[in-house]
Each structure stands twice: as C-alpha cells, then as structure tokens.
Design goal:
This protein is α+β, with helices and mostly antiparallel strands. Helices cover 36% and strands 21% of the residues. The strands form 5 sheets. It has a 6-stranded mixed sheet with strand order 1-2-6-3-7-17, with helices on both faces. A 4-stranded antiparallel sheet has the order 11-13-9-14. A 3-stranded antiparallel sheet has the order 4-5-18. Helix 1 runs antiparallel to helix 14 and helix 5 runs parallel beside helix 13. The structure holds zinc ion.
Length: 468
Amino acid sequence: MDAAAEAVRHARAHRGRTLDRLTRLLRYPTVSADPRHAKDMSACATWLARTLRRIGLADVTVYRGRVAPVVTGVWQGRPGRPTVLVYGHYDVQPTGPLSAWASDPFRSARVGPHLYARGASDDKGQLMAHLAAIEAWLATAGSLPVNLRLVLDGEEEIGSPTLISAVSRGWPPLAADVAFVSDTWMLRPGSPVLVTGLRGAVRARLELSGPATDLHAGAFGGAVANPAAALARLVAGLHDKTGRIAVAGFYDRVRTIAGKERDRLARAAPSDAVMLGPAQVTAGHGEPGFSAFERVTHRPAIVVTNLSGSGQGRAVVPARAAADLNVRLVADQEPATVAQALWRHFRVRMPPGVRGRLTIMAGCPPYTLDPCAPVVSAVNSACRKVYGRDAVQLPSGGSIPFVSMLAAVRRTDVALCGFGLPDDRVHSANERLYLPNLFHGTELCIELYRQLATEVNRTDQAGVSRRR
Ligand SMILES: [Zn+2]
C-alpha cells in the first residue's frame, strides 16, 4: 500500500475523532466582530494550538493579533521539497437573531448527514479536514510529503488586519512556494470547484451632516436641508434605472469576459434559477446583459449594506445620516482608484446645506489564479483520485483579503478548493456542514499534499517560466 493510501486508511478509521474535534471547536463562540468575545478568541486559539501539537506538529505558536490571535504550525522535515502554506480561519460571523436558529449555534446539532452550528462550513469544518489530513500523514508515514506552514486566522471575517499587515511586512511564517485554502464551496457533493478568482472589496461609509443638532420636524421641516433625504438621493444615484453603476470611470479597467469563457460558464456555472433560489425573489436584478453568476463574479457591484440617521424615526430633521457601502471589485480594478471615483461622484452631487465625508474602512484587490500555475494540475490530480473527476474551474464573487494580498504582495499562487456546499447557509441562521464533505475533503487534502510535492517541484526543476 502506498503512503497516501495508508494515510487515507488512517483518516477513515478515525472519522469519529475528527468529528469530535470539530464538535469541540464549534463550541467556541469566536465572533471576531464582537469585542465581548475576546476571551473566547484566545481560548479557542489555545485549544487549536494544543490540537496542532496533538496531531503531531511540534513547532506551534500562538501570535497575538490586533483583535484575535493567529495560530501557526510549522513542519519542515522535507528539505528540497516545496513549502505549502495552508490557511484557514477559526473566527465566525455573528449569529444574527437566535430565534431564527433551530438549535443553539454554538452547540452543534447533527441531523442526518448534516452538522448544524455557526462556523460548521465557514470555516471550522473545512480547516478540520486539513488537520485530519496532516494527522493521518504524520501518524502513518511519520512525515508529510511537503513542508508545511499552517496558518489559522482569527480575524478573517473582519478583513484579517493582523495577517494583512504581516504580508506587507514580509512576515517569515508566510513564506511559501504555494498556498492552499479551503474556505469555498463545491457545486454539489462529488463535484469539486477550483476557484480561479476572487472579487476585491472596498468597505466605505458615506456620512452627511446638516444642522448642528436634530431639529423639530414641525418647527424646521421644509426650511433646512435634510441629510437623510440628501443621502437617499446620493445613494439612489449610484445606479441607473437598468441596474448599471452610474459612477463615472467605475468600469474603466473592468475586463470584458471573453466569448469562450462566457460559453464555458453557461455550461459549467450555476444557472440563474440555482443562483437566485436561496434569495426567494421573483426576479433577478442587475447590470443588463449578464447572467446572475457573471454579475457576481466577473462584474463589479456596489452594495448598500445599511442606511442610518440620527433621527431614528423621531419627528425631527436629523443632523446626520450615513450609508455603508460594500463595493466588490473585479480584475483589473484597484481599490484606491475606485474609492476616488466614488468620492468624486458624491462630491459633485452634494446638495447645498449638507456636508459629506467618505471614509474608507478597508480594501483589498481582486485575485486571479494563474491558469498555468502548477497547483492547478496538482488540484486536478488529487480531485481525479478522490472524486474521479477534475475540479470545475470557476471564479467566486466572494473576497478573502488575505488571499488577495498574499498573491499581490508575495506573488504566491493560491489554490482555493473547499468543501462547503451552496446551501450551507454560510453567514446565515442554521449554518451547516454536509459531513461526507468533511471526510472526502480530508482525503483530498491527503492526496493534494502528495501531488504538490511532485507538481510544484517538477515545474521548478524544468525551469518553466510562467506568465504572471
Ligand atoms: Zn470563511
């Protein structure tokens, strides 16, 4: 029996233990956006560090982060072989109203083939597949086929501030020949997806102020400019009637989708009906001439995520009003240029009597995987072995700032191949993981580590120069 087959056999024999570990990991309410969970973040990081040592990684460190710790595990027993950075995150989105959950979000509930809990799919369940794979290799072969740098982020859901500044500073634990991330979905069980691109993002807040204080609506209404009404007009002006973005220069650097790619997506990507199913809307909406999948992957978007004002429904002319914007970018848009275009758009339309300010909270560039990267063939070989087929190559509409920055700053090829499913309800109530994906995902990781050892080396030895 070859070494990978041994490791797979071990992983199958220890599925119960993997599931127990995941159940324990899911009990930590690691909501990075909520400062009240700071202690939970630290406790979870400590537990993860202990678990990494238990699965056989000796070199484990918990680094203090800006909001939550970063946990790393390093294994360097293969001089001459490539170094693989495996990234996952242990923080989760807030639960939202508990009344929308059928069970406690932090006490996982098993129903049929699913495990329900916040973070079950995003990303605790997916990172657990890697831990099980590492353990299986170390327990059977006593070694890994590649050198490994495992990085577990506690701040992904808030934009990874610690790791992003670490990437820019050239932090040594992030040096690797290739990176692998499981924080995405498959088309359906047995149908793996290699994500070929992520959208970039700009988070911004437009604040308008008018009168010095909230004013009586009867005494002043109609006689002073209203920041809430002005805000509504500015926000409405972001799109034209068809749904196309009306900000001058916004589409300047957006690539057109090649005809061949559109044909391929029409066959391989989810249909409009599948894409919009979870939204339960009567009709799609957006830039004309594109499918729903194209709109959320190859086309940019400005999403108004919240509108608020100091009046809060009282009978006043509010002194202040604000809109939160989440802008999703595609190749080759740049966060800074887009932020400038947005501000120009608002500034020239600002009505008299109100002052405006646009604050950029965070930004990351879009990411595109080099189709010739050796990691692509490594993923396909591993997928053929485990799923009997190549991965379907599809772009994603999501953003993982750390991945974008790793690729932009360090020129690392990042393969995103995950074990979630489109109906996992990630970020929503009743999030769940389809457990067979955890176990097959473990086997994929086992196989992938082996494939990366040969594919990445082979290309380097052949001296193949790749397009960047
Ligand atoms: Zn995630």
